[in-house]
Design brief:
With 146 residues, this protein is an alpha+beta fold. It is built from four helices and six strands. The strands form two sheets. The chain has a four-stranded mixed sheet with strand order 2-1-3-4. The chain has a two-stranded antiparallel ribbon with strand order 5-6. About 3% of the residues have low confidence.
Length: 146
């Protein structure tokens, strides 16, 4: 059985090598035209920023829906202010921060160059830095527009 697996492995390696060398030339599989390997890209509507709300943070904390509530509130507020489309709020899976009692929110802007703030918000706290928690987050999002 081991010998059979080794033979199959060698055969696959030869096929991949041959395919790789042929892909530099023309591909016989696609009407003898060069293989187009470019990936199309588009400019998103959300030019001002993207807000990522971790949906896993509160699931780990007794199945709470606090992250979904926060996400929905942010979406509603952006729509109310006429900023929906320039900004997008997206629920995401684990971001790897995993706070003990909070939700991870990342605000990404086009000019951030990978330096996007990663905020840990406590869904049970109503006040943050003198402002209501949700209003504080909203003000941070709007800062990306300016």
């Amino acid at each position: 059985m081991k010998k059979l697996i080794q033979r199959i492995k060698k055969l696959l390696q030869r096929i991949f090598k041959r395919f790789a060398s042929n892909s530099q030339q023309t591909s016989p599989l696609i009407n003898s035209r060069p293989l187009d390997t470019s990936i199309p890209s588009v400019s998103p509507r959300w030019e001002s920023g993207l807000v990522l709300v971790c949906s896993q943070c509160t699931k780990e904390q007794s199945g709470s829906t606090a992250s979904k509530d926060l996400e929905n509130w942010l979406k509603s507020r952006l729509k109310f202010e006429g900023l929906w489309g320039e900004f997008r709020v997206v629920s995401t899976s684990c971001l790897g921060v995993c706070p003990k009692s909070g939700i991870t929110v990342v605000i990404v802007s086009n000019g951030s160059s990978g330096n996007s703030p990663c905020l840990i918000v406590n869904p049970h706290s109503d006040v943050y830095d003198g402002l209501r928690l949700r209003e504080f987050l909203y003000s941070r999002i709007k800062q990306n527009k300016e």
